[in-house]
């Protein structure tokens, strides 16, 4: 494009919506139209800082699985306390998503985007000096609160700032960093165990996140507020300024911003939580919440306890631990296996990024749920085959599960929850969906070690197979396809 490039004329003389300007395509002087709107530096900055938040979620939650055996031994905790430690961050995510994430509809996306990272850094620092089980659980809960706020806020600050046709792949591209963080968490955990082979290693694991988290916090001060949110609240002048700052390009287009003036009604300026359950939004609330709840039952249970299951499958486990060195050795072995399995999360999300805007969210979510069921069923067969064959089956089953959950429900439920609600209640809607989903995650994290001992691996995996099939059914019954839909039109 040259300095002589032009933009397409506004659709009406009364101005356009925020998303119309973001989606606007420039044309060459000869009339040739670009196929997609190029991303600006501000749009990429917002995307990168949101992706960093997803990285920290995967990093902290999955590294907890590597650190858990050390924590159990240092604080001499039993099965119930172990479940609380595993579930603490997830319980924080549950409350953070609905309590803090929903505040972005009142105070703005940017303010909560910053606040969540400040909370995260504070509790991360406190975690390093915990000296008992209670303080540890409180700090993990606080970290979860911050990460829970990030669920709706990060999605919205991306999706309300980028072109509609690229929304699926860019939101999921940021979400992919959850898988990158999960892999990094298990990898860093393994490395720290090698470098610091004693019970204090778990503190060093979490310490590695402090400086990166501080840098991300500072970076979030230098982005623009969501112009969609400003316009929905009736702050049209500020929204125009935000769009102008968001769309700085060389050569510049659009050359001027004149937003359509819409009177902000009471539901826009003072959104009610109960509006999520009225006739207008009830279907969206059910569709965003229930499948996400179902997929979290398997994703977090398998993700957190993969090192424990592998340690048992590979001949380790608590029954064979006689010393700290045995514990470290088992931890390193299990972390390596977990890292291999977790790598399939990245492969799965890569396919989701490529396909979400082509095949659509609904197809991928249903396909993914059935694939998860197949992977868990395959893993259950390992119980009947001792030795190398059993190990191969459990690896293959968990790797298939991780691939299918990230190409399907783990990615698509997150994407859809931030798209199916109108702007005025998008924060509360996405936050409620994430919180409802984390009820499943918390229940799984707390009950998984108890059920693993009480009913065994086979029955547990069969139960998760059944829930995965149920997830596909619920998705089909309440489906709302949002691929390529202009966010300004949602809820109309």
Automatic annotation (TrEMBL):
The keyword Protein transport does not apply. One of its GO terms (molecular function) is transmembrane transporter activity. Its main location: membrane. The chain crosses the membrane at residues 46-71, 83-101, 113-134, 170-196, 202-223, 337-356, 362-381, 388-408, 428-452, 459-478. One of its GO terms (cellular component) is membrane. Belongs to the major facilitator superfamily. Sugar transporter (TC 2.A.1.1) family. This is Glucose transporter. The lineage of its organism: Bacteria, Pseudomonadati, Pseudomonadota, Alphaproteobacteria, Acetobacterales.
């Amino acid at each position: 494009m040259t300095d002589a490039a032009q933009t397409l004329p506004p659709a009406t003389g009364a101005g356009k919506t925020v998303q119309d300007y973001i989606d606007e395509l420039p044309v060459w002087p000869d009339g040739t139209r670009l196929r997609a709107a190029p991303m600006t530096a501000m749009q990429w900055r917002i995307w990168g800082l949101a992706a960093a938040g997803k990285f920290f979620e995967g990093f902290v939650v999955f590294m907890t699985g590597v650190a858990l055996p050390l924590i159990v031994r240092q604080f001499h905790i039993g099965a119930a306390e172990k479940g609380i430690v595993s579930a603490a961050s997830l319980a924080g995510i549950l409350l953070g998503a609905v309590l803090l994430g929903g505040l972005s509809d009142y105070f703005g996306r940017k303010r909560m985007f910053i606040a969540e990272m400040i909370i995260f850094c504070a509790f991360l620092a406190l975690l390093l000096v915990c000296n008992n089980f209670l303080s540890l659980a409180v700090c993990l809960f606080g970290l979860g609160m911050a990460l829970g706020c990030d669920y709706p806020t990060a999605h919205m600050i991306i999706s309300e700032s980028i072109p509609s046709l690229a929304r699926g792949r860019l939101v999921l591209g940021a979400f992919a960093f959850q898988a990158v963080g999960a892999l990094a968490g298990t990898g860093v955990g393994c490395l720290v165990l090698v470098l610091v082979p004693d019970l204090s290693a778990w503190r060093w694991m979490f310490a590695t996140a402090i400086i990166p988290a501080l840098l991300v916090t500072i970076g979030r001060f230098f982005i623009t507020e969501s112009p969609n949110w400003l316009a929905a609240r009736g702050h049209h002048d500020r929204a125009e300024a935000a769009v102008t700052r968001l769309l700085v390009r060389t050569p510049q287009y659009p050359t001027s911003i004149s937003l359509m003036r819409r009177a902000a009604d009471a539901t826009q300026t003072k959104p009610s939580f109960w509006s999520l359950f009225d006739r207008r939004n009830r279907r969206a609330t059910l569709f965003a919440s229930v499948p996400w709840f179902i997929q979290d039952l398997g994703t977090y249970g398998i993700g957190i306890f993969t090192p424990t299951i592998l340690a048992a499958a590979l001949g380790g486990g608590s029954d064979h631990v006689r010393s700290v060195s045995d514990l470290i050795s088992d931890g390193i072995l299990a972390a390596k296996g977990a890292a291999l399995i977790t790598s399939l999360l990245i492969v799965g999300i890569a396919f989701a990024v490529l396909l979400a805007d082509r095949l659509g969210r609904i197809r991928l979510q249903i396909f993914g749920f059935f694939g998860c069921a197949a992977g868990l069923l395959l893993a259950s067969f390992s119980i009947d085959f001792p030795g190398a064959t059993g190990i191969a089956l459990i690896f293959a089953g968990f790797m298939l599960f991780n691939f299918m959950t990230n190409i399907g429900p783990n990615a698509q439920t997150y994407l859809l929850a931030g798209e199916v609600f109108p702007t005025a209640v998008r924060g509360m809607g996405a936050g409620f969906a994430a919180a409802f989903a984390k009820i499943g995650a918390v229940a799984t994290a707390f009950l998984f070690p108890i059920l693993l001992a009480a009913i065994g691996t086979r029955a547990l995996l069969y139960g998760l197979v059944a829930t995965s099939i149920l997830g596909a059914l619920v998705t089909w019954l309440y489906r709302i396809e949002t691929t390529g839909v202009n966010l300004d039109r949602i809820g109309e």
